Every structure is written in structure tokens, then in C-alpha cells.
């Protein structure tokens, strides 16, 4: 049908309009899945676990039967990324493949699938701002803009010139009840406002670590109005049961 329509248009010398199949922005897939050697990321750069991390790696591998060592790929990649200053190079992947005795492609498949593995170098503090619906409704984009401006006007995906911060925008991090929030390295900073966001970043800038968790004063995700349930003594074994069950 489409071919016939185009043929008819050509016969009548009418312009043929092209309709895009997608309205989303274009992005080269090789930036996500294809490795290209650079001077800082190529297989000739040696990598090996430190003595301490090798002990951890062996302990992780021991959790699985010998024929299923490949099940340890994810925790081993995480261990390698932590040792490699927060990112997973091609050398880290190849090293993990040797440890669990699988073709390197099996490790590449894992590292390119999970977004927790950074395949480019990152800053000392990895800032992930959640903009999924619950956080968005609570002002996540204002928090994202605050981070951008307070870190010198960087954009999402950029690293500050001093190498202290890398900023990314992420999907749900699982702290919906204390939105908006951001993760810095392994820790969550929740109930954020532009003011508290700047304070958190300033503490990191000074080389210290701010108080983890909600920044609005509440403990974990307790009701902001205070404790409203489980306020009485919990029942004991058999309490309030009929006599035959006591």
C-alpha cells in the first residue's frame, strides 16, 4: 500500500512527505553498547584485584556451585568497579571473565545491560537525581536544576572540572515515600529542597560526608505528622486468643 501511494505521488509529481516513526530524540546506540578503545580504556591496561578484594571475590564465588561460577558476574563487576574508581573498564570485564571462566562476551552482556555499571570514568561523587513520577510531583526537576547550577552549570552526564562530581538523571531509586531525592555514591539524601540540596553538595565539596537520609528532620520514612500507628504495646504470644488456643 505504501509503495503504491509513493508511486502514485511520483506519477502526479507530488511531494512525498516523510513521517518519522518516533518523536524521541536520536541517540547513537554504539554509545551505549559498543566499546571503542581509548588511551584510558583498552584491554592493554592491566587490572587485577587487590589482595583484599581477591579474598572478597573468592568468598563471593564460593557461594555458587563450581559449574555456576558465572552467577557471580554481577557482584564481581561491582567489586571491580569500586576498585577502579567507580567505573567498569574493558580490562575489569576481561578480568572478571577470566575469574569465572566464561567468554568475555558473557561479561560484556551484563555490563552493558545494567545501568549500575559505569562504562566511562566518573567523578569522586556520583550524583544521581531521580525524576520518576513520585519525585517529579514533589519537585525533582527543581532539585536537578539546583544541582546543575550549584555545580557550576554542568549538564546531565557531565563531570565537574575538578573531578569531584558527576551528575546523571535516573529512574526510580525506590525512595518514593521520601521524594524528592538523590543518591550520592551509595547513600540516599531524601525530602530535598533546593536549600538542603545545596547544603548536601557543599558538605561533599568540603571533603566531608553529610548526614544520610531525609533532610527534613524526620527519622527514615516515618509519618511527617509523627507516629500514628503501632503506638501501643504489641500483643504477646497467645494474647487475646480464645482459651482453647492459649
TrEMBL record:
Signal peptide: none annotated. One of its GO terms (molecular function) is metal ion binding. Its cofactor is [2Fe-2S] cluster. Residues 222-232 have a biased composition (Polar residues). Residues 209-246 are annotated as: Disordered. Keywords: 2Fe-2S, Iron, Iron-sulfur, Metal-binding, NAD, Translocase. PROSITE patterns: COMPLEX1_24K. Pfam families: 2Fe-2S_thioredx. The keyword Kinase does not apply. Binds 1 [2Fe-2S] cluster. GO terms for cellular component: catalytic complex; membrane protein complex; mitochondrial inner membrane. The keyword Cell division does not apply. GO terms for biological process: mitochondrial electron transport, NADH to ubiquinone. [2Fe-2S] cluster binds at residues 130, 135, 172, 176. Belongs to the complex I 24 kDa subunit family. This is Uncharacterized protein. It comes from Serendipita vermifera MAFF 305830.
Amino acid at each position: 500500500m505504501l509503495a503504491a501511494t509513493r508511486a502514485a505521488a511520483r506519477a502526479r509529481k507530488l511531494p512525498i512527505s516523510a513521517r518519522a516513526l518516533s518523536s524521541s530524540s536520536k541517540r547513537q546506540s554504539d554509545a551505549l553498547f559498543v566499546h571503542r578503545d581509548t588511551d584510558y580504556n583498552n584491554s592493554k591496561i592491566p587490572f587485577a584485584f587487590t589482595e583484599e578484594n581477591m579474598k572478597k571475590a573468592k568468598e563471593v564465588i564460593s557461594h555458587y556451585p563450581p559449574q555456576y561460577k558465572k552467577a557471580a558476574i554481577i557482584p564481581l563487576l561491582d567489586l571491580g568497579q569500586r576498585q577502579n574508581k567507580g567505573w567498569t573498564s574493558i580490562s575489569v570485564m576481561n578480568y572478571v571473565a577470566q575469574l569465572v571462566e566464561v567468554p568475555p562476551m558473557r561479561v560484556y552482556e551484563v555490563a552493558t545491560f545494567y545501568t549500575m555499571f559505569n562504562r566511562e570514568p566518573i567523578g569522586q561523587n556520583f550524583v544521581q537525581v531521580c525524576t520518576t513520577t513520585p519525585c517529579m510531583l514533589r519537585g525533582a526537576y527543581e532539585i536537578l536544576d539546583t544541582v546543575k547550577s550549584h555545580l557550576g552549570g554542568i549538564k546531565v552526564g557531565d563531570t565537574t572540572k575538578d573531578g569531584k562530581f558527576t551528575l546523571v538523571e535516573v529512574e526510580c531509586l525506590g525512595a518514593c515515600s521520601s521524594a524528592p531525592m538523590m543518591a550520592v555514591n551509595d547513600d540516599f539524601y531524601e525530602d530535598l529542597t533546593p536549600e538542603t540540596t545545596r547544603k548536601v553538595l557543599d558538605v561533599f565539596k568540603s571533603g566531608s560526608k553529610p548526614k544520610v537520609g531525609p533532610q527534613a528532620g524526620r527519622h527514615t520514612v516515618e509519618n511527617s505528622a509523627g507516629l500514628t500507628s503501632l503506638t501501643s504495646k504489641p500483643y504477646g504470644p497467645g494474647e487475646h486468643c480464645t482459651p482453647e488456643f492459649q
